[in-house]
Amino acid sequence: MSKKVDKLNAQLESALSEFISQISGKTEDSAKTIATKFLNQIENKLNFEKKTIESIFSELNGVEHNQPIYINEIPFISFCEHHMFPFFGHVSIAVLPKKHIIGFSKFSDLVNNLSSNLTLQEKFTEEISQLIYSNLDCDGVHVKVKAKHLCSDLLSPENAIGDITTTFSTGIYELDSSLRAEASLNMG
C-alpha cells in the first residue's frame, strides 16, 4: 500500500475507534480492535484477488453439450453501494450452451469476482448474466440472485424484509417465457 493509503487508513481507524468508543461505551483498546478488524474486513473483501475473465471463460477441451445446464446456489457476500452494508445469499445460473462449456467452478469464480465490488443486487444479477452471455458461446443465460440485505434490517428494523430475488435473462431465455419458466423450476 502507498503511504497515502496507509495514512488514510490510520485516520479512518482513529475516527472509527473514537466513534465506537463514544456510542458503545467500549474501552479505547476494545474500540480500536473493533475498528481495525472492521476496516481490514472491508479492505480484504474489496481487494479480493480476482481471476481474469479470460481464465474464467476458458473452454473445456473436448467437452461438448447443447442442453440446459443449471448451477444452483453459489454462495456470495457483497457490499451495497448505497449504504456499504453487506448483502448475501445465493446465485443460480441457467445456461443453454451451443456446443462448448466451461468448468462448473468457473461460474463460482465469476460470482466471487463480481461480488467483490461495491454494487447493487440488480446490477450484480445483470453483470453475471451479460458476462456469461458475451464470453461463452451460448444461446442464452438466466440468472437468479436471492439475497438478504442488512441495510434494510439495520437501518429500519421495524420494516425489515425477507430475501430479495432478482433475475436477468439474455438470448433465448429473454425471448422464450417457457424456457425461462423451466429454468426457474430447475434453479434453487
Give me some keywords for this one.
GTP Cyclohydrolase I, domain 2; alpha+beta; 8 helices; single chain; 188 residues; 5-stranded mixed sheet
Describe this structure in words.
The longest helix is centred in the N-terminal third of the chain and has 22 residues, at about 5-25. The chain has about 190 residues and is an alpha+beta fold. The protein has two domains: about 5-45; about 55-185, GTP cyclohydrolase I, C-terminal domain/NADPH-dependent 7-cyano-7-deazaguanine reductase, N-terminal domain (GTP Cyclohydrolase I, domain 2, 2-Layer Sandwich). The chain has helices at about 5-25, 30-45, 55, 105-115, 120-135, 150-155, 170-175, 175-185; strands spanning about 70-80, 85-95, 120, 140-150, 165-170.
Q: Helix and strand layout, with pairings?
A:
Layout: H1 3-24, H2 28-46, H3 53-56, E1 69-80, E2 86-97, H4 104-115, E3 118-119, H5 121-135, E4 138-149, H6 150-155, E5 164-171, H7 172-175, H8 177-186
Parallel strand pairs: 1-3
Antiparallel strand pairs: 1-2, 2-4, 4-5
Helix pairs in contact: 1-2
Architecture per CATH nomenclature, i.e. the level-2 architecture of the largest domain: 2-Layer Sandwich
Indicate the proportion of strand residues: 15-25%
Count of individual beta strands: 5
Total helical segments:
8
Q: On the 0-100 scale, what is the average pLDDT?
A: 90
The CA-CA distance between the termini, in Å, is 41 Å
The CATH C-level class name of the largest domain: Alpha Beta
Q: Structural class, judged by helices and strands?
A: alpha+beta
Q: SSE order in H/E notation? A: HHHEEHEHEHEHH
| CATH homology superfamily of the largest domain | GTP cyclohydrolase I, C-terminal domain/NADPH-dependent 7-cyano-7-deazaguanine reductase, N-terminal domain
Describe the sheet with the most strands. Answer: 5 strands, mixed
